[in-house]
Amino acid sequence: MRQEIILASGSPFRRKMLEDAGIDLSVERPAIDERAVEDAVGGAGLRPDDLAQILAEAKAVDVSQNHPGALVIGCDQTLSLGEELIHKPADMEEARRRLLMLSGKTHQLNSAVVIVQDGETIWRHLSVASMTMRELDPCFVGRHLSAVGDVALSSVGAYQIEGRGIQLFEKIEGDHFTIIGLPLLPLLKRLRELGAIDG
């Protein structure tokens, strides 16, 4: 019998990536407050890539407690502009300001993934994508946000490159899976090494 695999995430994009790759898994949303975890580990003084790893691990550990023996996958993604950590916009006005702030600049998406078994982290990985946004006209930003609607609030950068958000960019360095929020190829390799999937 194959190892039970659980994705500790509420993200439909991450679930779809794994299911499309042929992974038989269940999904459980972790019961953690990400901002409370961030505050507990030092908040503003923490590097954005470290925070992504800490949050991914916290999610997986939380779900792992209810599933002895299962391999629990935790993921998180942070956005950094230089050393500044950026959070998801709270409303459409903040999304508008976010896009104008990122306009003409290069920011990083830090995507972390961990595997936890019985409350212990047995593997972790971080991938980084560099995203260069083109210079955006404020009127275009307004029209863009009207077209995409509240989906802009589900992304830390107020964009989804798998949809209309791709129009905002001039250059992208990094793989598609890292940008969506799950470094899939390293994860699949580790699951094969653990014998959890066929390989």
Features:
199 residues; alpha/beta; Maf protein; seven-stranded mixed beta sheet; 7 helices; globular
Structure classification: alpha/beta
Q: Please compute the radius of gyration using only Cα atoms.
A: 17 Å
CATH architecture: Alpha-Beta Complex
**Major sheet:** 7 strands, mixed
In the residues, how many domains can be counted?
1
The SSE order reads: EHEHHEEHEEHEHH
N- and C-termini, Cα separation = 15 Å
Low-confidence regions = none
Q: With helices defined by DSSP (H or I, 4 residues minimum), what is the helix count? A: 7
| Shape, per Cα inertia axes | globular
Mean pLDDT: 93
Query: What CATH first level would be assigned?
Result: Alpha Beta
* Count of beta strands: 7
User: Beta-strand percentage?
Assistant: 25-35%
* CATH fold descriptor: Maf protein
Q: In percent, how helical is the residue content?
A: 25-40%
